[in-house]
């Protein structure tokens, strides 16, 4: 089984990691786990100011910060994992990665916003649910 765990560094994504660990421990054969962080693209002007290397470093630092607690939890659980950094809008990027990577399940957290806040701000979880062809486990 292949599980994609969407990470943004929030408490909600930490709960998703804990759920994925529980699922993995319950399986007879350890699943393939991939931690994915989708970082928001920089505005063109900012990216131009930073340059190619500066922009790459910026996204890598964001990725490392978001992954810190997830890495620790998975290492503590003695589970192997790999990581994926994508610079794109999170919802569509997660759905695309899940399908393209032939994952069996996406595990992600939800911040639990009200319906009005989600409608106004957009919800990554809602976008993934509406666009994914892969089953999605939302953890709150």
Provide an overview of this structure.
29% of the residues are buried. The protein is built from 5 helices and 5 strands; from the N terminus they run E-H-E-H-E-H-E-H-H-E. It has 140 residues and is α/β, with parallel strands linked by helices. Strand 1, helix 1 and strand 2 form a beta-alpha-beta unit. The chain is globular, with a radius of gyration of 15 Å. It has one domain: Rossmann fold. Helix 1 (11-26) crosses helix 2 and helix 3 (90-100) runs parallel beside helix 5 (124-131). The model has no long low-confidence stretch (mean pLDDT 91). This is UspA domain-containing protein. Pfam families: Usp. Residues 2-140 form the UspA domain. Belongs to the universal stress protein A family.
Helix content: 40-55%
CATH top level label: Alpha Beta
Distance between the ends:
23 Å
- Overall SS class: alpha/beta
- Overall body shape: globular
